[in-house]
Design a protein that fits this description.
The complex is a heterodimer.
Chain A lengths: L1 H13 L7 H15 L2 H18 L18 H19 L4 H15 L6 H19 L5 H16 L2
Helix pairs in contact in A: 1-2, 2-4, 2-7, 3-4, 3-6, 4-5, 5-7, 6-7
Chain B lengths: L1 H37 L4 H32 L1 H17 L8 E3 L7 E3 L28 E9 L8 E12 L2 E16 L4 E13 L4 E4 L7 E6 L7 E8 L5 E9 L2
Antiparallel strand pairs in B: 1-2, 3-4, 3-10, 4-5, 5-6, 6-7, 7-8, 8-9, 9-10
Helix pairs in contact in B: 1-2
Classes of the chains: A mainly alpha, B alpha+beta.
Pfam families (chain A): Globin
Organism (chain A): Rhinodrilus priollii
InterPro entries (chain A): Erythrocruorin, Globin, Globin-like_OT, Globin-like_sf, Globin/Proto, Haemoglobin_extracell, Mb-like_M
């Protein structure tokens, strides 16, 4: 059954190259479930994503001093990294429910407002995710669909 | 590597000793000549000096002999062969680490996430995850594979050539470099002769020493090359169904010199 689902998610996506269209959203949901994993694997996934973000924009650590961004292995930072992925998880899972998604994005936008996060930090997050994902997923994944749908979510949080 | 450092020290002292002997020999030989020129009758001294020279040569020989014995023990090709054998045994054993994780090895076993191998941060207690990070598939490299079995490719070739066109190592995430390759297939049947050059993108994963190329055609057949982690001149290449991960063809690849 699992293989069948993955199979469906892979085949379905070839058809459309829309800007995070309905089928792309379903595909992202399914691929995210595999990548997000659970337990230790999830912690490691979060760790890899954040290391790659800070490697691109070291100055971004400054925003995370409260959660010990200077050391990504610090328990406080691990908790934070998991919290962020938790937020991403909610938005990805709501990709096929536009009303709920837009409410969640408004909520996240309010949380990020006033923190003066430059757009290139969101870009760094995207680049990082798009490189750790293939390593995490191994085989079947669609870079284009991820690019489209991540942009949709990030722009929602940025408020533009 | 501690052993290697000690070894290097031994080598250094041996070389110094050799150099010293060479100087002694040269001085003695020089002295010898002078003696012959000026006092042709000093046979006693000559005999003694000859003896000394002979003895120096013998010592030099023993030192060289000892050095070559050391070299034979440290021969990289031999260490590689032993590693390949170890890898084959490990493949037969039950895996000690959960899926998607890497065994740090050594006397102190530890499992770390695949995502951390060669990412520039030391995660293994013994530092092993950052020690073997030389990419075996460099730009311009070419590997020729001979068929073992083939139940799925369209062309059923005897040989496949994988040519590495470009390699991109991302500074912010070095654990899985992007690879762009060409899969060259030449077929020659009674009816026709054909050549195909399929461009394919993929990634290299240090955690498993694997080269994965996404399906170059729309038949869903991907390419997976597995190095054993020691011998980087050969690898097992599998054609696998992208969705089921089932291998349906196997080729054994050798680096083209």
């Amino acid at each position: 059954m699992k293989i069948l689902l993955v199979l469906l998610a892979c085949v379905v996506a070839f058809a459309f190259a829309d800007e995070c269209g309905t089928l792309e959203r379903l595909k992202i949901k399914s691929q995210w479930r595999r990548a997000y994993s659970h337990g230790h694997d999830r912690e490691d996934f979060a760790q890899a994503v954040w290391r790659a973000i800070f490697a691109q924009v070291p100055s971004a650590r400054g925003l995370f001093t409260r959660v010990h961004g200077e050391d990504t292995k610090n328990p406080a930072f691990i908790a934070h990294a998991l919290r962020v992925l938790g937020g991403l998880d909610i938005t990805i899972n709501l990709l096929d429910q536009p009303d709920a998604l837009s409410a969640e994005l408004t909520h996240l936008e309010r949380q990020h407002k006033g923190r003066h996060i430059p757009d290139n930090y969101f870009e760094a997050f995207k680049t990082s995710l798009l490189h750790v994902l293939p390593a995490q997923l191994g085989r079947c994944w669609d870079r284009e669909a991820w690019g489209h749908c991540f942009d949709l979510i990030a722009h929602g949080i940025e408020g533009h | 590597s501690e052993f290697a450092i000690r070894q290097a020290d031994t080598m250094k002292s041996l070389r110094l000793l050799l150099a010293a002997l060479a100087v002694v020999t040269a001085v003695l030989a020089d002295h010898h000549e002078h003696k012959v020129e000026h006092h042709g009758h000093e046979h006693d001294h000559e005999a003694q000096i000859d003896k000394l020279l002979e003895r120096t040569n013998k010592i030099t020989h023993s030192i060289y002999d000892f050095e070559s014995q050391l070299d034979a023990r440290l021969d990289p090709a031999r260490i590689r062969r032993a590693g390949s054998l170890k890898h084959r045994v490990e493949e037969l054993e039950e895996h000690h680490c959960p899926q998607h994780s890497h065994q740090c090895g050594g006397d102190d076993p530890q499992c770390i996430s695949d995502l951390f191998v060669c990412d520039g941060h030391t995660d293994c207690r013994n530092g092993e995850d950052e020690k073997h990070c030389a990419l075996p598939t460099k730009e311009g490299d070419s590997f020729v594979g001979d068929v073992v079995y083939d139940n799925c490719t369209r062309r059923r070739p005897e040989h496949i050539t994988v040519e590495i066109e470009s390699v991109t190592i991302h500074k912010y995430y070095t654990a899985s470099p992007d690879i762009h390759a060409h899969i060259e297939i030449h077929t020659d049947t009674d009816e026709e002769e054909a050549h195909a050059s399929l461009p394919a993108d993929g990634i290299y994963t240090f955690a498993h020493n694997e080269l994965y190329l996404y399906p170059p055609e729309d038949d869903g057949l991907a390419f997976l090359g597995e190095f054993d982690g020691y011998d980087f001149d050969h690898f097992d290449g599998y054609i696998i169904h992208e969705l089921s991960h089932k291998a349906c063809a196997h080729f054994v690849f050798t680096r083209k010199k």
